[in-house]
Prior knowledge:
The structure is a homodimer of 356-residue chains.
Chain A: H1 2-32, E1 39-41, E2 44-46, H2 54-61, H3 75-85, H4 93-98, E3 101-108, E4 111-118, E5 129-133, H5 148-157, E6 161-164, H6 176-188, E7 197-202, H7 204-219, E8 226-230, H8 242-245, H9 259-268, E9 291-296, H10 302-314, E10 319-324, H11 337-353
Parallel strand pairs in A: 5-6, 5-7, 7-8, 8-9, 9-10
Antiparallel strand pairs in A: 3-4, 4-6
Helix pairs in contact in A: 5-11, 6-7
Amino acid sequence: MIVSSHGTHRTLFVLVSATVALVLAIRVGGAQTTAPDGREVPARMLPVPNTVSLELQQLLAAPIPGNWNTPPNTPEEWDAFAAQIDRAPRDPQPLLDRFDIRFEPMVVNGIPAYMMASSVIPPENRDRLLMHLHGGCYMMGGGVAAMYEGAMLAGFGHFRVLSIDYRRPPAFPYPAALDDAVSAWQGALEIADAKKMGIFGASAGGALTLSTVLRLKQGGLPLPAAIAPGTPMSDLTKSSDSFYTNRLVDNVLMGTEARCQAMAEVYADGHDLADPMLSPVYGDMNGFPPAVLTTGTRDLLLSDTVRVHRNLRRAGVDAELHVYEAQAHANYVRDIPEAREAFEEMARFFDTHLDR
Amino acid sequence: MIVSSHGTHRTLFVLVSATVALVLAIRVGGAQTTAPDGREVPARMLPVPNTVSLELQQLLAAPIPGNWNTPPNTPEEWDAFAAQIDRAPRDPQPLLDRFDIRFEPMVVNGIPAYMMASSVIPPENRDRLLMHLHGGCYMMGGGVAAMYEGAMLAGFGHFRVLSIDYRRPPAFPYPAALDDAVSAWQGALEIADAKKMGIFGASAGGALTLSTVLRLKQGGLPLPAAIAPGTPMSDLTKSSDSFYTNRLVDNVLMGTEARCQAMAEVYADGHDLADPMLSPVYGDMNGFPPAVLTTGTRDLLLSDTVRVHRNLRRAGVDAELHVYEAQAHANYVRDIPEAREAFEEMARFFDTHLDR
């Protein structure tokens, strides 16, 4: 028992010493590299605002699902999830009908895509082309759903839009989507002049818009004349403040323990999440084309968006920010009256910056 | 007992009927004019982000005061509060020293003011003048403190700045501050040409910037060439969504039960809070000059700011929005590295839009 007791004391001593050392290390580290402690924000009632459209009010009134923080976990669960994703895609047909848009499935430099054009293309837009990279946390939103957001800019803005159906994880993780976006861009350069072209997309599509430009810069390839990264998923390292301020305020993305971050990490496939090709907020934005950014005050990616805006401005880029009242993540890409306002801002921006 | 029992049943019946009627009335009313019900957002930890300056991290780490929601209430309490306000004003002297700014107290068309200029005024700014309306919930920030924010734009932007020391409640409620701002503007028109002038200010000063332009429009007076309403207190009716999403996230304004809203209501002095001269988000912004708006993602007035931005854009006004990561209300008007960025954006905007 005495030996045992000595052993216990020694173990305790070692544990205490290690703990003290660890605490000291954290303290010392904290003074230099980490932020001060945070604080708890108490529970609060969140009313639905009456200053926005009834359609948006309905979206904002949707409850947080009970299972919001239990995404798939094992490879098998992800495979099962992925197999279900494309069974009920967001249907672009009502939008195509509403705007009288014709589309043509095509393959651009090996990448499947949809070329869309409304029946009314004004003369100044006849030689212009916008390449669209859809959202969906890298894993969702492919197939015909890839057209949905593209149809909005084709419809509200009367531009020709080429929506790219890039490869997705788990079968095709990073850098497949980015490779496809760059390949599609190279193919699109044979359809139109880069000075008459833009790139846009929301969420993962916003991040891909930014990372594609980073890749084009690296490769010395022609850049688009303007870009519209919508609420870009620009920081997978969970460093953005709105991940915490808008946690469970945003009823679309909910929080970082929800499905979207998990899908993005499946896409990242073990690569460093801080790599600018995965978290473009850390990229060098010098020489970027003019950019218009869109988000909402309830967006979990509000900070992801405004941090990109600031980085662009610090790099001297002509960058515009539009933040919509009370909107959660990518609400402006839904069928609500506010969508017109957001896409007309983007269309006006492209019209200003693209050659005719 | 039988009568009593009948009575009880009757009372219950009346209560139930009244409740049903009330619920029906709410439902019917709800379908037409009020928003759907809200939901509860649970408590959460709010870390201090490490992507912002250490100086801003220190501001963000400040706790919420325990008495945050107990503002003065009676006229006597307000008088006592007001008597204390000017005893420890925010001292502009360190800023004046840092930027080598000389100031001159003066009276402009009957209104006390401070004319400021740094030792370096570039040729293009020699005939330009910015009128500054300070913040402080209408009640605070007067006297020499009126210069503080003005000194930042004078210093970072090398503009001549005229800071107005308008009258304040409880002694001088609405419309005294607005009357003074308009009078000072009329006086300033004898110093400089309206096409070479701007108006700016944060918080209550942002609201006054907007309501002054509304008044100038009404009176057919010359408008400034550009304005910079910073985080304008644009809606005293508590309709902005960020009053709820950023409640106790913003450790400067805290929430609508805190002192600032109470001070603004003392200023309003019983007038309709929805009057555009008190809540300029409800004003007609057609014909407004170009505007640059500034706020932060944690700002209780984030929505007050973005709603004004949207209203300006809908009115076809050239309006820019800058939202800074993690900043609470008017943090950019504090001595933090991010202040330079915010005021240089404003200075660049004025330089673009003011005649030389």
